[in-house]
Every structure is written in structure tokens, then in C-alpha cells.
Amino acid sequence: MMKNWLAAGAVALTVGMTSTIANAQSTTVPGEQVGLAVGAPLPEGIYAINTFTYRRPDAPSSALSGSADTAVNIPVLVWATPLVPFGGRIELVVAPPTVFAFTRNPAGVRNKDISINVGTFVGGIWAFDLGGNFGVSLLGGVYLNDLNGDRGSLYSGAFAPNPLVPGGLSPVGTPILPQLSSNTYRFGVAGSYTGNGWNLTANITANFYDSPGRFGGPVGAAIGPIRLSDALNFDLTATKKFGNFEIGAVGYGTYNFDISQFSAAFNNRGRFALGGLVGYDFKVFTVQAYVARDVVTGATYTSALGQTRTNYSTDGWIRLIVPLYTAAPAPSPVPAPLVRKY
Fold it and tell me: What is the pTM of this model?
């Protein structure tokens, strides 16, 4: 049962959203699938999954550093259909992620905590059981940012009036998430080994954009076209179950292809983080938690003394997987009575 729920979580978390407000380009959250048997097909049924991640960068929160704590919440509904063309199960996914930012401003400085709706993710997975506890899956889907993604704009009356913005307000720190200026097209491939209580999984996820992207309305007209970088994410898992407990190591990262001057991922090739995971199977639901720390990152910030420093981050994650319905297994055939003739 634990293996099935891990696979359910793997399907659900393909809809993740980036938890980095500044610099990072990938719409998909690096690390969203670690700890899950992404390559394993689900048994037929319906699954509800929620995952939450909180990220804290080393940079102090200030206008100078452009840094803030960020979080992402991803409620997901997964339908593992009865369709198994060529032996691979078709699994359909829908989810509306939300991203949050928290400034950590000190007393006396106004805070600007915000939330942004990401375009609803719709997609599907084709997952195969290869036998011998090996599985592989292919993923395709899209974040519908052009249809119902948030605009992610901040305004302030402290700047000179902008004739392109109603009310004469100027957009400040706009856009907060430049990748929402385009639909995000996502493709992925994953492989898993789940024998003897192990979960050894590797997953590669690609994000592609209609670049340059554009926001609509007067604010979008003021911003103009936004150059977006395609990206690759890598999620790695090595965990072992001991009864209902699970423990192991995880690693994940992202790679931005375009880090040129006018790219939304300017001067940030990506990041890679390492950490540990613990989980527990409560039978009616499964909980996992993990923490990871950057070991390599292209993110930087400017200190109060004008120095450029590397902006490492620490991520905390918690995941809940609940099967709402699973189809009853097919009954075993009744053996025919043995008739002997003497």
C-alpha cells in the first residue's frame, strides 16, 4: 500500500510551482517529486494529495537584496484511469497551485506579504510496470498561466505617476513571477526501483515557454515582452522502509539554459540541494517530510556594504497523500474441480 501511495504522490506533485520569487526560472518546483516512486504506475482509483514547501534564503529580507521567504501549496486531484494502452496506465491530473512570499521586514518597516495564483495545471502520465520492481513513466501537461494565472504585480503611490496604469500608480517589483507571462509546457521521464522496501528513483522534468512572454492589460503593456529561459529539473531519491517508517537521502536541482542579460534567469544557471527524508504510513494516509540545503547555487544578492554574495537557501517540505477511492482487485479465478477417473 505504501508503494501505491508513493506513486500517487509522484503523480500529484508533477504540478508543482516554483518557490523562488526572484531569479529562478523553472515553473516546476525543484525537489517536488523526491521521496516518491515517480516511475511506478498507480492502481486504478482517485487520490487527493497536498504538498507544502517553505523556503528561506540566506539573504536578509530587504528591498536591497530583493530576498524574501517563499512558500508553495499544491492541492491535487489524481484519477488513475482503467485505461492501460500497451500495458501502461493512463493517469490524469489537475491542480491549482498557490505561491506565497513573506518579507521578514523588521519592526518599523512595512511588510508586503503576498500570494499569487499559478495557472491551473492539467496533464497526464503514462506509467509502465516493467516487472522485477522496476517502473518507468512519461509525463506531459501544461500550466494554464495565460488562462487563469495571477498577474503578480505590486503597486506603490510613492513613485511618479504612470499613465499606463489606472489610478496613476507605478508597478513596483513587477513582474514577481515572470514565468507566469507564458503558459508552461511540461514534459518528464522517470524511472523507479521499489523492491525490498527501497525507493530508488531518478526523474528529469523539462519546462518550455512561449518566449518572449507577455502579461495582459495596461501593466503588461508597461512591462513589455519578457524573455524566458527553458529549464531542466533533476529529482533523485534513495530511501528505505523499516516497517511503517521510511528514511533516506534526497537531492534535487534545476538548470536554466538562457542566463543572458535580458533573460528572466539572468546570471543564474541554477541550483542543487541535498537533504534527508522521513516518512510514516498511517495506513489510511501517508505523511512525508524532508529538509534540504543548497550545495551549489547561481543565486546572488547584494549586502548592505555593496558586496555580492551567494544566496544559498534551505527548503522544508511536508506531504500528505490520501486515497479517496481504489478499485477492488479482480477476484482470483476459482480453480476447476479436479475429476479423476479410476
Answer: 0.83
